[in-house]
Specification:
Structural class: mainly beta
Largest sheet: 8 strands, antiparallel
Number of strands: 10
Number of helices: 2
Helix content: 10-25%
Distance between the termini: 19 Å
Radius of gyration: 14 Å
Shape: globular
């Protein structure tokens, strides 16, 4: 299982920002998630998703709230109205919000070129890295 291992530094047991600017990675992620919950998005588009095991991937509406340094929250809306927030920090996937489908921490993910391929509980997602992290995306 791939884990976002690129968070650099420790400051009193809290993961610190790798750019030295003083903003903690956890603060950036909390900001992105809060913006997503307030419907304050930087971009909108479509991603591939499947809600259940064995279901084929289909286009789902998605919106992204970015807060810099590879940190973002992506809200994916399935055709049936179910939504989930996917959380990214320091260029990698870290978790999703808890829903009736699961707690959002049973995850697996990988990169395939510029694509991010995720599994959260029984759901699957494929997202373009530039959509998640912005046009200056540098994997």
């Amino acid at each position: 299982m791939a884990i976002c291992a690129a968070l650099l530094g420790q400051a009193g047991g809290v993961l610190a920002d790798s750019d030295g600017a003083g903003t903690l990675a956890s603060e950036r992620l909390n900001e992105a998630v809060a913006r997503a919950r307030r419907n304050e998005f930087d971009d909108a588009g479509a991603v591939l998703c499947a809600q259940d095991i064995g279901q084929p991937l289909e286009a789902c509406d998605a919106r992204v709230a970015r807060s810099g340094a590879g940190t973002a929250a992506v809200r994916v809306d399935f055709p049936n109205g179910f939504s989930r927030i996917l959380k990214f920090s320091d260029g990698g996937f870290v978790s999703a919000n808890a829903t009736m489908s699961g707690v959002g921490t049973d995850i697996d993910w990988q990169r395939d070129g510029d694509r991010l391929i995720l599994r959260v509980d029984d759901q699957r997602y494929e997202l373009d890295g530039a959509f998640v992290f912005g046009p200056m995306y540098d994997r």
